[in-house]
Amino acid sequence: MTDDVTDGTGRPPEGAARWRGWREATERALYGPGGFYLRPEGPAGHFRTSVHASPLFAAAVARLLVETAEELDTDEVALVDVGAGRGELSAGVLAAVPAGLRVRAYAVERAARPDGLDARVEWTGRPPEGARGLLFANEWLDNVPVDVAEADEDGTVRYVEVRADGTERLGAPVTGPDAEWLARWWPLSGPGERAEIGRPRDEAWAAAAGSLAAGRAVAVDYGHLRGSRPPFGTLTGFRAGREVAPVPDGAGDLTSHVALDACAAAVPARAAELTTQREALRRLGVSGARPPLALASSDPAAYVRALAAAGEAAELTARGGLGDFLWLSQRV
Q1: Distance, CA of 299 to CA of 48 (rounded, Å)
Q2: 253-255 and 236-239: which strand pairing?
Q3: Which pLDDT band holds residue 44 (cuts at 50, 70, 90)?
Q4: Which residues pair with residue 259 across a beta bridge?
Q5: Does pTM surpass 0.85?
Q6: Which of 272, 238, 276, 267 is nearest to 255 (CA)?
Q7: Of the chain's two ends, which shows fewer C-beta atoms within 10 Å, N or C?
């Protein structure tokens, strides 16, 4: 990589040569002026999430919302869609819920409300306080900015600093609450090992789950657990549908996998369940099983529809793909 990036005039843009921690650099690149998540095309212009892969995902969340309403013994329930993108999941759930269940939908997102979104969806910058229902955060926590730490040649754990072109260097030693978090959740044992310091995600999840008065809070993301942390971290970038090196210039996504066990512990009064998306969706009726061949003879159109749905379900539950996402569920 070169030492500086340019703005097309041969001059480095403002701040390009400044060293920042990855948390500050990510915040600026994703959510600052002209940031990636504030761009008009939204995340769907660059990568597919489960929401974009198939309407079966929204239908499954709708069934989970129905279960939550039954647990609360009510026919009026809230859906709080955190990290809502352009409202695709909220709209899909509203389209899939059965008649008779009244849903107040909140799309929580830092970008502006998109044109044409279902008028029943309330657009907001933060979760409402005191909602009763389902809070669902699909691929939100992986985009909560975090700092990156690396052990130097002497074993001292230091913050990793970065410039806008992706050039890195080691900075000050990690101390205080960040050091305590690493010691508990992601200890580094040798030179060159790296970790993403997930404390801001724990705090974000605790605040989101704590906003519910009653119901269920669910976070869905690529994740890992303490016994199997990746030794060199997971920070990466996505641009135009391709995985690329992480560069905090605002032109692409910056993401890293989530220590979901740490997030769960940040809400200690709530019993936590961690499972794979494959298991969670199958429990909600999403199966990749092919329809019986007999249906092809008795109702060819229905067979074609069922075959297409089976293919979409297979993508949502695939090993090595979307099916490996982790679901953290905590009841309130």
Answers
A1: 32
A2: antiparallel
A3: low
A4: 224
A5: yes
A6: 238
A7: N
